[in-house]
Amino acid sequence: MSAPLPLRGVKVVELGSVIAAPYAASLLAEFGAEVVKVERPDGGDALRNMGVRANGVPLWWHVASRNKRLVTLDLKEEEGRAAFLALVDAADVLLENNRPGVMDRLGFGWKALSARNPRLVMASISGFGQTGPYAPRPGFGKIAEAFSGAVALTGAPQDIPLHVGFSLADACAGLAAVYGVAAALHARDVLGTGRGAHVDVALYEPMLRMAECQAALTRLLGTAARRQGSNDPWGFGAPGERRIATARCADGGWIAAILEPGSTLDLDALAAAQARPDALAALRAAGVQAAPVQDGMSLQQDPYFAARGDVIRTQDGTAGTLAVPGAVPHGYDRGGLRDFLPSGPPAE
């Protein structure tokens, strides 16, 4: 018999759009939380109309909205407001990523909602946080990535700073919101405070935190770290240190390898002379740490990810067969984890 889902019984209301708060809600839903996503009546979440479509439905929406109950409410009308408050009164968690001030103007700010439901944990994700002179500004993921300091470290020194090719800031903020919610629930229910908390996450802050000692090193050395391609300027790639190198193989696949200081290995030549599996085998036989540079196609084809449960196949009535990310982290009874449930239209 499967173990209970870790978050079974936790009730979550999501008043989010596009990525950050919806991503946080989807992570909670995968581990058993009951998530109700509230959408506007004028078309719902903008993510419904973004990205590549399968049979008329955006694939992004199919993944992002899974495992959620979808409800349409007009929060400017009395009936919709009453229904929303009823959801919040019964909820453990409210996730939202509106611009600071919007929730207060609607009458759904932290002070008002916590007065109604003192046990409520509210997580607010915004571009620049709930406080500070930039708080009223709109939030965009790529702007947050630049603001965090991470973009300045990415790319070759002679080239422009680079962003990664997916919504990194939004995803990091969603993750930070999830562990903020978990900490608040622990304090409420395990430490016995009995009260919720307001979790405040700015889009740029988790990436700034991930940059670790960049600010301290700059203050000590008097100069900011420079871009070193794909190498860490203060580790891999620094003088006398290992370096990370990539090369294209004869079959078109790419590999990445860590080369030791003073290594004379011609990675480009080795890769160009053979297919990727053979090149990787040769590198490992020589004691060189290497891995394939995976992409969307190879992630689905490599049996390792299927065996690990990192990529799973699911059937959707509209979009057909989809390959989607599995639930992380591991360490739970996998049989108890919730399968991906089909997304659907908003329910009145």
Blueprint of the fold:
Blueprint: E1 11-15, H1 20-30, E2 34-39, E3 53-54, E4 57-58, H2 59-64, E5 68-72, H3 78-89, E6 93-96, H4 102-106, H5 110-116, E7 121-126, H6 141-147, H7 168-189, E8 198-202, H8 205-210, H9 214-221, E9 243-248, E10 254-259, H10 267-272, H11 276-285, E11 290-292, H12 296-301, H13 303-308, E12 311-316, E13 320-325
Parallel strand pairs: 1-2, 1-6, 2-5, 6-7, 7-8
Antiparallel strand pairs: 3-4, 9-10, 10-11, 12-13
Helix pairs in contact: 1-7
Give an overview of the whole structure.
Strands 5-2-1-6-7-8 form a 6-stranded parallel beta sheet, with helices on both faces. Helix 1 packs across helix 7. The chain has 13 helices and 13 strands. The mean pLDDT is 86. It starts with 10 loop residues before the first strand and ends in a 23-residue tail after the last strand. The chain is of the alpha/beta class and 348 residues long. It has helices spanning 20-30, 59-64, 78-89, 102-106, 110-116, 141-147, 168-189, 205-210, 214-221, 267-272, 276-285, 296-301, 303-308; strands at residues 11-15, 34-39, 53-54, 57-58, 68-72, 93-96, 121-126, 198-202, 243-248, 254-259, 290-292, 311-316, 320-325. The protein is globular. The longest helix has 22 residues, at 168-189. It folds into 2 domains: 11-210 and 309-336, Crotonobetainyl-coa:carnitine coa-transferase, domain 1 (Rossmann fold), CATH 3.40.50; 243-295, no CATH class. Pfam families: CoA_transf_3. It comes from Falsiroseomonas bella. GO terms for molecular function: transferase activity. Keywords: Transferase. InterPro entries: CoA-transferase_III, CoA-Trfase_fam_III, CoA-Trfase_III_dom_1_sf.
